[in-house]
Amino acid sequence: FKNISKNIHHSLLPCLPSFQALHIVILGLDCAGKTTMLYRLRFNEFVNTVPTKGFNTEKIKVSLGGSRQTASFHFWDVGGQDKLRPLWRSYTRCADGIVFVVDSVDAERIEEAKTELHKITRLAENHGVPVLVVANKQDLRNSLSLAEMESMLALGELTTTTPWHLQPACAIIGEGLQEGLEKLHVMIMKRRKMLRQQKKKT
């Protein structure tokens, strides 16, 4: 699959009205499995990927909780290499949710992942945006446990306004992705309800 390698300008990502697809940004260090996750969701099969030089984008309908209800997600999968990370901010502007993918096997880079995760959630425009942390590659024998990842990523230290959920997953076979997106959807809807109530009060 060809990567679209143009940089998106702020003005191309307007805040979407609520009836449109949810704007979800997939972030994480390079080689964490972001694009593998995207194409597993899109095609329900494993797609061999190359490092993303810019971004990949897909609109995907996801069924919720075994019911007939579905939600439309518009995913933006952004490259995780060092030089691309300053661009993340452009994509998270007006995001309904952030999916942050972490390689559970790469213990040496967990600290780097933690730094980037905390940096993006501390941005003023991302306050309150729900974060789904995907602990990818949990199927591998030497993967870190969820408790270890929660501690090493210091998830308890994310800003008090940031709702988060840590989801064990294997992007190659798709395990855990559905459950994770359901949790993310619940967090997004909860936040919308709260914002509506705040608006009424003012």
Automatic annotation (TrEMBL):
Binding-site residues for GTP, renumbered to this chain: G28, L29, D30, C31, A32, G33, K34, T35, G80, N136, K137, Q138, D139
Q: Where is the signal peptide?
A: none
Principal place of residence:
membrane
Annotated localization? Cell membrane; Cytoplasm; Nucleus, Nucleolus
Keyword Cell membrane listed? The answer is yes
- Pfam families according to UniProt: Arf
Xref: InterPro entries: P-loop_NTPase, Small_GTP-bd, Small_GTPase_ARF, Small_GTPase_ARF/SAR
| Keywords from the named record | Cell membrane, Cytoplasm, GTP-binding, Lipoprotein, Magnesium, Membrane, Metal-binding, Myristate, Nucleotide-binding, Nucleus
Q: Which GO terms describe its cellular component?
A: cytoplasm; nucleolus; plasma membrane
Q: Which GO terms describe its molecular function?
A: GTP binding; GTPase activity; metal ion binding
Is Methyltransferase given among the entry's keywords? no
Q: Which CDD domains match?
A: Arl4_Arl7
Residues reported in the UniProt entry to bind Mg(2+): T35, T52
UniProt cross-references to NCBIfam families, sorted A to Z: small_GTP
Give the multimer and partner information: Interacts with CYTH2. Interacts with KPNA2; the interaction is direct. Does not interact with ARL4A.
Report the protein's function.
Answer: Small GTP-binding protein which cycles between an inactive GDP-bound and an active GTP-bound form, and the rate of cycling is regulated by guanine nucleotide exchange factors (GEF) and GTPase-activating proteins (GAP). GTP-binding protein that does not act as an allosteric activator of the cholera toxin catalytic subunit. Recruits CYTH1, CYTH2, CYTH3 and CYTH4 to the plasma membrane in GDP-bound form.
* Family per record: Belongs to the small GTPase superfamily. Arf family.
Name of the protein this chain belongs to: ADP-ribosylation factor-like protein 4A
